[in-house]
Amino acid sequence: MLNFLDLPLIRVVREIAQARKTPVLLVGGAIRDALLNRPIHDFDFAVQGNAVALARAVANQLDAAFYIMDAERGTARVITTTGHASPANQADALHLDFALCRGSTWDEDLFGRDFSVNAIGLDLTTGRMLDPTGGQADLPGRIIRQVTPHAIDDDPVRALRAVRLALTLSGSIEPATITAVRAAASQLGQPSPERVRDELMKTLAHPAATRAVRQLDTLGLLSQIVPEVEPMRNCEQSQPHRFAVLEHTFVVMEYLDEILKNLREPKPGEFQTDHGEFPAWLQGLRVSASHRDALTAQLSAVTTNERSRAALLRLATLLHDTAKPATRSIGADGRIHFYGHEEAGADMAAVRANTLKLSSDEVEQVRTTVRYHMRPNQMSRESDATGPTARAIYRFMRDAGMCAPEVALFCIADGMGKAGTATPLAEARRRSAIAALLIERYYQQFSPAVAPKPLIGGKDLLAIGIPQGPRIGQILNAVREAQMVGEISSPAEAMALAQSLQTAGEDQPPHPIDRGV
User: Fold this and answer.
1) What span, in angstroms and rounded, lies between the C-alpha atoms of 172 and 138?
2) Which of 182, 203, 225 is the last residue of a domain?
3) Would the N or C end of the chain have less CB density within 10 A of its end CB?
4) Are residues 388 and 261 part of one domain?
5) How far apart are CA 307 and CA 202, in angstroms?
């Protein structure tokens, strides 16, 4: 095991604590992960004294960021850069969390924690390992066991954390803890929505998130967080769908996990010439290395709330068909239809995202992904052998915005989710090919980093006598579209087009209205 006392960062904490005569216990995930030879990303310290003051002193010594997380409970965080990171850590930064000891002794603190594998401590004063709950005995089997029979009942969010921890450690929840997890499902309305959200989003950030989502459903937890899944469970669909809506959703999520894994871990040349080792159903996804890197960077990007876009994409995937039960109808041909489910689903997804207290930008990402999740498939079906028109591509990019490449990836998974391994290979490759086209075009022409500036603006139209009003927006949109599809390329051409559109009369739309595909 890593000798924590030899780490420069731990030495700093230890020396400051000793100078202040403040006992400190290193506890939790860092020790657990070190014992399992896993990378360490965070350090948690329990403090018998003023934890906030100690954290501030450590931050000053390390010239690191500092902020108070909860003044009432005496918790604070220090964020270091790689210059202070341990050899076991591969991240660009480390979080050091300092919290007031839970009780008057270290044993009281450790017995107040969630699971035995998280309740192993190292006393920085004596260098002695403390394990009163038997966590080290549970580590070899990666067993998730609540510290006390009432640990999950004391904090129902721990039920969600048990599932996430089992996923993270590739472990299992022992039977008595499973019973406690099931019993906690009905209590998930008690904790704040923010805490429930944080556990859910951490789970969705995992590369194999669907495994945990299925377990959340089996244990009765998922429908407490996302009630929309219950009507989906027995909502049947016509062929080529093989699954009811909820199982279809889980299968789509599994394929999305597989797609994201292949993007993260490419084999030599697989996106350029040699596709032999790529899954057969994904071999149409021929994306250049530079655009693949841009896409993986976008998916890995975190919001100001430290939630990744990949996790938000998985949430949108979970919610993408929530409106199907409400829009289900049976046609004269006996087939089941879900007309308008993407529009209704976008509204439902936004409501759920707001209930989970996501930020407005995060809500918009989820809403947009659900709203346009069918568009790439429509484009692939309705285009001829030359592919979708420049105008169809532009309108998709305009509507989907930054979500365009993510929606393109989703389209592949959604198609595979209809019939799973029974999906015709030609159909799968068609979907992955249209996704590749859209991803390439997005990073070539439409991403914020490369998109050209509009040729004209509202002030230019006011200057030629077009009155203030909705017509200005219509004309600007039409001019922008003409610019982006290559019909015009200069301000003079843009002004000429704007003038002709205004002359044509306000009753005429700037371009023929189509379905955007």
Assistant:
1) 10
2) 225
3) N
4) yes
5) 8
327 and 465 share one domain: no
Contact 328, 235 (CB under 8 A): yes
Residue 241 lies in a domain: yes
The C-alpha atoms of residue 510 and residue 7 are separated, in whole angstroms, by 66
CA distances, 329 to each of 55, 234, 336, 344 (Å): 60, 15, 6, 14
CA dist., res. 491 & res. 110, Å (int): 68
Contact 248, 417 (CB under 8 A): yes
Residue 425's pLDDT is what?
92
- Amino acid identity of 335? R
Q: Record the pTM.
A: 0.91
What is the count of structural domains for the chain? Answer: 4
Taking the CA atoms of the chain, what radius of gyration do you get in angstroms?
27
Statement to judge: residues 397 and 477 lie in one domain: no
| Enclosing domain of residue 185 | 141-225
Peptide bond before 467: cis, by omega within 30 degrees of 0? no
Residue 516 lies in a domain: no
Under DSSP, the state recorded for 140 is: T
Kind of pairing, strands 24-27 and 121-123? antiparallel
Helix 360-371 / helix 341-355 crossing angle, nearest 10 deg: 160
First and final C-alpha spacing in the chain: 58
All residue ranges of the chain with pLDDT < 70 are 1-2, 82-92, 266-278, 383-385, 505-517
Give me the DSSP letters along 236-261.
Answer: ---TT--S-HHHHHHHHHHHHHHHHH
Task: Tell me which residue of 48, 138, 38 sits closest to 100, measured CA to CA.
Answer: 48
What size, in residues, is the chain? 517
pLDDT at 366: 98
Please write the tens of the pLDDT for every residue from 13-51: 999 999 999 999 999 999 999 999 998 889 999 999 999
Q: List 27's β-bridge partners, or say none.
A: 44, 121
CATH number of the domain where residue 134 is located: 3.30.460.10
Among candidate residues 225, 257, 287, the one where a domain is terminated? 225
316: left (phi over 0), alpha (psi -120 to 50) or beta: alpha
- Cα distances from 140 to residues 33, 40, 171, in angstroms, run 12, 18, 10
Residue 88: its pLDDT value, please?
42
Tell me, what's the pLDDT at 50? 95
pLDDT (0 to 100) of residue 233: 97
Q: Are strands 143-144 and 65-70 parallel, antiparallel or unpaired?
A: unpaired
Is 277 domain-assigned? yes
Give the tokens for residue 318.
Answer: 């979970």
**Can you tell me which residue has the tokens 């403390």?**
130
- What tokens appear for 436 in the block? 């590749």
Pair (129, 45) in one structural domain: yes
